Amino acid sequence: MSPTTYRKLQGAHVLVIGGSSGIGAGVSEAAAASGANVTISSSSQAKVDAAVARLAALYPSRTIRGIATDLSSPATVEADLDALFRSAQGQGTINHVVYTAADALSLGSLDGVSVDMVHAASHMRMVVPIVVAKTAARYLPGSHTSSITLTSGTVAERPTKGWAVVAYFGGGLISLARALAVDLAPVRVNVVRPGYVDTGLWGGWAGRRRRRLWASLRAGRRRGGLEGWRTWPRRTCGS
Ligand SMILES: NC(=O)c1ccc[n+]([C@@H]2O[C@H](COP(=O)([O-])OP(=O)(O)OC[C@H]3O[C@@H](n4cnc5c(N)ncnc54)[C@H](OP(=O)(O)O)[C@@H]3O)[C@@H](O)[C@H]2O)c1
Known about the structure:
six-stranded parallel β-sheet; Rossmann fold; oxidoreductase
């Protein structure tokens, strides 16, 4: 079904943190197509500006705004997120928050993982989602028409070899979303589990490593008996 069919987000304000590229850019576009006004955020001002310009050209009747905010600093992330929400709120009440921000994956198989690597990789994937929810709870109207959506991955439930730590982050996000849905009710809290999506996330992976990843995905499909791995993103998003 096309997102435009029922305009379910007509007039709503959607804040997409990580909306300047990849899955978040797709979410931003789908939200605008569904009638929403969209605020896009990520760390790079140039990427935010480009994403806003592209979406504003596609949907001139919507209010499309960008706010660059780097969430990578553990020391300032609470204040950074509060400033982001406050600024976004200036464009009208925020109804929905989508968190798709992530830095490049630096983790490999277990024998190459160090404690410092786990701490660093967990910041955007485990710590920031908690602070996003904590901040959103102060800004979203306390209503079932408000929502927070986090992003996990199919790796949480169908890990392939060498992905243990990332699977742990993804599984933790699913549990976090379930518990937050209880804590923050009536605000809805969701988590999506995309499969492999060809985005900038894999940009830093050299050709050989990337080919090995694709091979492991195919092997995972055979082991798990899944059909049509190319369609994973469509089948798993929104589950
Ligand atoms: N792609 C896949 O195959 C796949 C599969 C399963 C799950 N996922 C998950 O889906 C989510 C989105 O992934 P994606 O593939 O769309 O990645 P992506 O294309 O690399 O997009 C990541 C977004 O996060 C932003 N970001 C990165 N560092 C940031 C920071 N320090 N502060 C604020 N924003 C920051 C990026 O913009 P800036 O560079 O401007 O900061 C970008 O907008 C991630 O949680 C990822 O783990 C992806």
